Each structure stands twice: as structure tokens, then as C-alpha cells.
Amino acid sequence: MAQVTPTDGRPATSKEVGRRARVAPRVASLPPSGIREFFDLVQTMDDVISLGVGEPDFRTPWHVCDEIIDSLERGRTAYTSNQGIIELRTAISGYLQRLYGVEYDPNSEVLVTNGVSEGIDIAMRATLCPGDSVLVPEPCFVSYSACAWLAGGEAIPVPTRIENGFRLRREDLEAAVRPNTRSLMLGYPSNPTGAVMTRAEMGEVAQFVLDHDLLVYSDEIYDRLVYDGHQHVCFATLPGMRERTILLNGFSKAFAMTGLRVGYTCAPADLTEAMCRIHQYAAMCCSTSSQIGAAEALAHGEGEVQRMVADYDQRRRLLVGALKDMGLDCFEPQGAFYTFPSIRSTGLTSREFASRLLEEERVAVVPGTAFGPCGEGHVRACYATSRENLRLAVDRIRRFIDRLH
Fold first, then answer.
1. Which of 51, 94, 120, 236 is the most exposed place for a label (fewest CB within 10 A)?
2. Model confidence at 3: pLDDT above 90
3. By residue range, what is the domain housing residue 262?
4. Distance from C-alpha of 262 to C-alpha of 228, rounded to nearest angstrom
């Protein structure tokens, strides 16, 4: 155990050494999630309209809940295969085939996880060696860099900017790549920006991946939430990418099943087997009832997905239009359910803006810096809440902005 010297200069006692060294340095150095920090603060306050946490306000579709209840009544509460029930893995395989034309063997290339968050974690732990680096476009979901760090790797930020629609460009990738770069983390449609990349743009990224012999973790949890005729590009469908991609997806966003914690990975058999080794020791399997509900969602949930997406689109237009009317430079999101307006014109930092807006007007947004240093000058506002709440939030934000001028 490493020696620790007290701040007063005397030798540390054995009790002090034990107390101070009981948390691993890699974990101790990990910052708390900037999203959860504001979420926890909101819980202590009254009359707050939260545009913070990215969670659908829709209830899980009734037919999914009914199937779960029925499974409980029939006593389907035992462990499942580590990989997940074959009915769900087969449904996932068919779903991706129908949507994108990409095929995965449900027996050897599909793994059911406890949400996409676990999928990201085990994907990186299964493929990174100590000292490997991962290219991570920023601003990005808070887990990407943290999971790379916990896996023994290093996250190398690749900046994306509002001037380029927060799209990833090859020249920025080339500027960031290192000799020890092992992989690339993708997250499109993007949390927090709402950016969507075209097939041609993704093709440039795919060529970069080939040229540098990289592996790709592709988080596509928002794949169904796209607007204005934009099309999601499943990265594994690009030439040469299926064998290099760990596809990550789940049921939280499009199917409003956040608390049920069902995600999945799709990847070549050797990668799936490696991820399953970690999953079987860390989690055993995903909740049996949740898996049954997820299979029902894929079988009969398409109408609910379309209804929710149409409603999100109306909310998107409401919030983006209002933010622009206030004079904020607001990139128009094409996917997910977030806006990422620039607040530089206010003269405040991201954190100052979010803190004062919460304190003075009881509206919760997330500082852009929660998604990496590239997020400075922005805040994330989630429109996965009712239009009534959005209108109230807009009135309060406008009042706050007017006071700043």
C-alpha cells in the first residue's frame, strides 16, 4: 500500500495510511457527473422546471408493462442466459436487419446489457490495454471518457464546433490521433448537441478508421429520434465497418424504458464473447422481466415510437424557436431530444449561467462543460418534458436573459 504523508509533515500512522489509500487512485481522481450534480441539487428545491436529465416524460407503453406484469404472474423471475433471453436477442437481430440491413447472429453476436451504460463500460474494458488511447469527440455524453479511464485507457478529446453543426471532421481526427490510439468512440445522434451526421460524412470517418486500423464503439441509443427528414446512419453498415464496430443501443430513449435498464451490444463473435466474460461476472444477466418487456417493445411498439418522435419534434421547434427569439445562437438539433445553445452573448460561463438560472428562476439546465471542455459557452436543455413545462421554462429563461442585458 502506498505511503501517505500527512499535511503537517509527520510520518503517517498505519491507520491513516489505510484510511487514505482504501479508494483506488484511478477512481478517486474521477470527477462526479456534471449532470447528476445539478439533478441532485434540483431535488432539494421547490418549483423547479427541469430541462436537465435526459429522460422521456412519456410512460413506458402499456403493452410493455402488461407483458412484464404477466411474466411476473407466471413466475418468470429466474436467471437468464448471460447473453440474455434468446427471444430478445433474436428480436434485436431482426430489428436491426429491418431498419438498417445489417445482420447479427443472435447466438454469438448479440449481448443484452444493463442499459447502454454497461455496454460502453464492458466494450472498453474488453478491448483496451493499459496505455491505449481512445478518440472521443466532444462535447459528448459524460460516460465516454470516464469509462475509457476506468478501463486503463486515456480519452483524447476531438473538438466539434457549432460552426460545423457539431459534426465530426476528418481533419480534427487526424490532428488528435496518436501512435497509441486504439479506438474511436462515436455518439450520433449526439448527446448533448442533437447533431446528426450524413452517410457521406460518416464515410469519411470510416475511411479514417481503416487508415489507422481502429476499433469503433458506436453509441446509437438515439437512432430513432431524428427529425426534418434526416436519416440515422448505422455505422456498422458502412464498408468495412461491421468487423470493426461494437454497436451499442437500447430501449431507454425511443421506447421510454429508462428505469428498466435494457441495452445491447452487437459485434463480431470474438468481441461479443470477450464482453460477455466481463458481463457474466459483473452483472450475471439483465433483469428477466425487463428483457421480456423489451422483446414486447420490439414486437409491437413501433406505433408508440412514432407517436413520441412526432411529439418531440413539436417540442423541439417550440424550444429552439424561443431560444433564438431571445437572441441566443442556437444550433437546430436534428436528433435526440436536446438543444445546446450558446450563451456566450450573456458574458457568463456555462456554470455561472446554469447556476444563476436555477437559483433565480428555478429552471434547471446542464452546463456545457459537463460534456467536456469543448462545451464551455453552451448549456444543454432537454425538451423531453411537456409543452406546458417548456412554455413556463421559456418565460423564465427570457426573464433571466432580459435581466442580464
1. 94
2. no
3. 75-300
4. 28
